[in-house]
Amino acid sequence: MKTQVCIIGGGPSGLMLSQLLHLKGIDTIVLEKHTRDYVLGRIRAGVLEHGFAKLMREAQCGERMDTEGQIHEGFNISDNGVLHRVDLHKYSGGNSVVVYGQTELTRDLYDAREKLNGMVLHEVDDVVLHGLDSGSPSVTFSRGGNSERIECDYVIGADGFHGVSRKSIPADVLREYERVYPFGWLGVLSRTPPVDSELIYARHERGFALCSLRSNVLSRYYIQVPLTDTVEDWPDDVFWDELKRRLPGDVAARMQTGPSIEKSIAALRSFVAEPMRYGRLFLAGDAAHIVPPTGARGLNSAASDIYYLYHAMVAHYQQGDDQGLEEYSGKALARVWKAQRFSWWLTSLLHRYPEMSAYDLKLQQTELDYLFSSDNALSSLAENYVGLPF
Ligand code: APR
Ligand code: PHB
User: Fold this and answer.
1) Which of 171, 227, 324, 329 is least surrounded by Cβ atoms within 10 Å, i.e. has the fewest?
2) Considering every ligand atom, which ligand is closest to the CA of 162?
3) Which fold has domain 181-268+353-386?
4) Are strands 5-8 and 28-31 parallel, antiparallel or unpaired?
């Protein structure tokens, strides 16, 4: 097979780029390891920054997001039972975020690809990237017992943290930066009305908690747990009791509980790989960087990668201008690191670390007190939460 851009990974990053390039007449093939149902079965976060929402519309995939997604102009931080509202709209100069599940967004992208007869090959195995430092790269893989090969101009590594693309960059070129946090998030999805119309991030002496939502009838809640815990340690009633303990009394009192329809524990990790380009390979999204979920930056870090790559590819194919491709890694990483900083900061501000001293706790408390006493600090939080420009 032959294509212009071969995209490894059919997650939000790969599908979005494929869709945007297709609309500009650039041919792509997406290679995805799993079935569509498997990809759509993964429960992921649900906050989109306005820049990503704009990209969805540009990709002609924004219709359902705009009708079913909720615009949020603020969120709340509970500090040991006391609720403070962060007015995103006021402090970010009129911006907001869209609450729309990443699973739904991925479904919209798949539907859009299908409508345009975009080529997405599922259940591919043994993906190997060849000739990345030559002028004619190729990708080999197996599918349904057959060995296949795609010749292309460029390869996009959008195959997530565990993908093969990043690992195809020689070890003496690649530099990895990582921080692993000493706790995880236990997440529960339940078919109950959300406890609040806005998100509540809770700092509490028993540990962090988060009340989020997918719709008016679907809630997503998280609590900080030790990494040694398993979901078996958290039957539903134990989970609800613990969540309520970490929230303000009136919020806990109005919490509607019900059976969990999904329950999982995720480790928290910060990770960046540099450079994001090697020859004809360009990394995007989770393949190159991940953040702890606290700042809702996961998908939003991917958004700027996709935006830069999209424009760079269009400039290359339509004007023969390679400046965007040359500058991609540096430009993408500059924004990636800002999202890393913000996610690390919000994580540090709200979680209870096992090794925290009395001094550390005082500093954490002061940081929060300062935040709610300073318009400048709130503006900084808001501009990062709604998404820095790209
Ligand atoms: N070959 C082909 N596909 C692969 C391979 C491989 N060797 N390895 C992984 N994949 C696929 C995965 O099955 C997955 O569907 O690549 C896709 C990568 O998708 P994501 O992990 O969702 O990464 P990305 O598209 O960059 O999305 C970023 O997802 O995890 C969240 O927080 C993250 O919100 C962010 C978003
Ligand atoms: C979610 O809804 O899953 C969610 C929301 C905000 C976050 C993290 C996760 O910061």
Assistant:
1) 171
2) 1
3) D-Amino Acid Oxidase; Chain A, domain 2 (3.30.9)
4) parallel
- Gap between the Cα atoms of 301 and 284, Å rounded: 9
Topology classification of domain 5-73+95-178+269-349: FAD/NAD(P)-binding domain (3.50.50)
Residue identified by tokens 């009633």 is 237
| Ligand 2 lined by 294 (C-beta under 6 Å) | yes
Ligand 1 centroid to Cα of residue 44, in Å, is: 11
Give the ligand 2 atom nearest the CA of 296. Answer: 10
Pocket test for ligand 2, best of 222, 265, 345 (most atoms within 8 A of CB): 222
The full set of domain ranges for the chain reads 5-73+95-178+269-349, 181-268+353-386
Q: With 0.90 as the threshold, say if the pTM is over it.
A: yes
Ligand closest to 46 (CA) is 2
